[in-house]
Specification:
The complex is a heterodimer of chains A (245) and B (313). By secondary structure, chain A is an alpha/beta fold. Chain A has nine helices and eleven strands. In chain A, the strands form two sheets. Chain A has a six-stranded mixed sheet, with helices on both faces. Chain A has a five-stranded antiparallel sheet with strand order 2-1-4-5-6, covered by helices on one side. In chain B, helix 1 packs across helix 17 and helix 13 runs antiparallel to helix 16.
């Protein structure tokens, strides 16, 4: 992998500073090669902006999300967040997931099944912010209260509905004060009624966030409703929005 | 969720699986699949059940129930029982401390020779325990590879000590735990570990706060197997640790010796071992099976598609 990285002509990419988004934003050019499949997209999100990445399954949305989250090193390009370089193969720099200020809400939430809702939220407060157990629980409860599900704090994920699980997952991701929030198909696991409820909730929440937000979705309506701006990817590359939608 | 009829109909409508058999509603289709068990299967299965249960029946029928109280209170019986419980528990503890990290290494990392290492590690499971005992003597005995240094530098010898018993038991029993936990780690949903990393947890925090709790049922099952194997350990123990009442004479050794002088005592000792094992199995089932269900249920809850698929079956 290192050979491949150093083989990349260093001059082909512009230095990150030259094209950087304003302070606090995400500026990424992500190239990932997996056999025949090549993902190569450029994404910029300014602070407070919500951008939707629209594409069919297999288009490379999840790969992009995993690369931004630090779960997958990119093969070429760069990922810069708030002028901090998170991944730059040419400079041999890679910040692993646990040290990236990036919050992720996964498609099926991935709430830890053995922990109560409150402890799921407290998990990141302890791991990322280094809080003590009591303080983390206290603050986790505040988050759940703020999201209107304070009374569910003692439930385990199995006893939560889809919409409730979504809120716990959002609280868990936001509690770590991420500099970038990634939402993976935030509505696709929900039934129609809950979907509308969660959509309304997200619509109220997203404008209040100061961090850039990236939503990955296959649903043009969700992208339209939730995002300030939509980019489309198809077969690993940026595509014409009209065609994809 | 939809009713079974609707989901079954939906499953056949999407074209995957066997072609739909439109009879009098899908309920009857379902009943039809409950086929009769062929005699070529139930006859040998019944014989296997008889064969496995008959010795236990023999033990219960022939037990000297009236003299049992007197036998059990004898010093050597109590000594052997306490020694067995103590050593098997310590061996299980050691297996947990060293075996879970080993299982993690085998399941989560890629390095050359991993397959060979796994095969060698599980060797004690199939190796005749006496051979294990001889091998332990050659490695850790007074003149063994490592044992020589242990005794020269620290004046410390393992063979024929209680510690030796624990070593022999750990040697034969740890692979059971490793295999059980590794299997669970391989089939566990690794995306929970991704989620943990995105929340700022370093690999060690992820291991002990997410990975291990997720495979807790397998850890418990592996520990139970490991403990039972250690409790029953005979060959490696008598070869490596000898047979000294109070220090290395565990229950199985006591049973074997008693069979020559005092068959009634042997039966009584066997009964005690049987009772202890049954008690432990029951206790583990009671406290761990709900845990296993909890994990499975929550997986189903976050993956509605998978849950629906499960219902069709």
């Amino acid at each position: 992998m290192n050979d491949e990285r150093s083989a990349e002509p260093a001059g082909r990419r512009m230095p990150a500073q030259a094209t950087a988004a304003p302070l606090g934003g995400l500026d990424a050019r992500v190239t990932v090669r997996r056999g025949q499949f090549v993902l190569d997209v450029e994404v910029r999100v300014t602070p407070g902006e919500t951008v939707a990445v629209l594409g069919r399954s297999g288009a490379g949305k999840s790969t992009l999300l995993r690369a931004l989250a630090g779960l997958l090193p990119i093969d070429a390009g760069h990922i810069t967040l708030a002028d901090q370089v998170l991944d730059d193969p040419a400079a041999r720099r890679f910040v692993p997931s646990e040290r990236r200020p990036v919050g992720v809400v996964f498609q099926d939430y991935l709430l830890f099944p053995h922990l109560r809702a409150r402890d799921n939220v407290a998990f990141g407060l302890r791991a990322r912010l280094g809080q003590r157990r009591r303080q983390a629980r206290h603050q986790a409860q505040d988050w759940l209260d703020q999201f209107g599900i304070g009374e569910l704090a003692d439930r385990r994920p199995a006893a939560l509905s889809g919409g409730q699980g979504q809120r716990v997952a959002l609280a868990r991701a936001l509690a770590t004060q991420p500099g970038l929030l990634l939402l993976d198909e935030p509505l696709s696991a929900l039934d129609t009624v809950t979907r509308q409820e969660v959509r309304t909730f997200l619509l109220g929440l997203l404008p209040t966030l100061s961090a850039p937000v990236l939503i990955v979705t296959h649903d043009p309506t969700d992208a339209e409703v939730l995002a300030d701006r939509t980019i489309a990817i198809e077969a690993g590359h940026l595509a014409d929005l009209a065609e994809t939608a | 969720m939809t009713s079974p009829d609707v989901s079954a109909a939906a499953a056949s409508a999407d074209g995957s699986g066997p072609p739909p058999r439109v009879l009098a509603g899908s309920r009857s289709v379902r009943r039809e699949t409950r086929r009769r068990v062929p005699w070529a299967l139930w006859v040998p299965a019944s014989l296997a059940i008889l064969f496995l249960l008959l010795p236990l029946v023999g033990l219960l029928v022939r037990a000297p129930w009236s003299g049992l109280g007197g036998l059990i209170t004898q010093t050597y019986v109590r000594q052997a029982l306490l020694l067995s419980l103590r050593t098997a528990t310590i061996a299980t503890g050691l297996s947990l401390v060293f075996g879970i990290p080993l299982a993690w290494l085998l399941a989560r990392t890629r390095f050359p020779g991993r397959a060979l290492l796994r095969a060698l590690i599980t060797l004690p499971m199939v190796l005749p325990p006496v051979v294990g005992g001889v091998a332990l003597l050659l490695a850790l005995g007074r003149r063994g590879l490592l044992g020589e240094w242990l005794s020269q530098w620290f004046g410390f010898t393992l063979p024929f000590t209680t510690t030796g018993v624990v070593v022999a038991q750990t040697f034969v029993a740890m692979p059971f735990l490793v295999v059980s936990v590794e299997g669970a780690l391989n089939s566990a949903d690794r995306r929970y570990e991704d989620a943990s990393a995105t929340l700022g947890a370093d690999p060690w925090t992820t291991f002990h706060r997410v990975t291990v709790p997720l495979v807790a049922p397998a850890v418990a099952a592996g520990a139970a197997l490991c403990w039972a194997r250690a409790l029953g350990e005979f060959g490696a123990t008598i070869t490596f640790a000898g047979n000294f009442p109070g220090t290395t004479q565990t229950m199985p050794l006591a049973v074997y010796l008693a069979l020559e002088n005092d068959p009634d005592a042997a039966i009584a000792l066997s009964l005690i071992l049987l009772a202890v094992c049954v008690a432990v199995l029951v206790a583990l089932r009671a406290s761990w099976v709900p845990g296993a269900r909890r994990v499975l249920r929550s997986r189903g809850a976050v993956e509605p598609a998978a849950a629906a698929g499960g219902e069709v079956l």
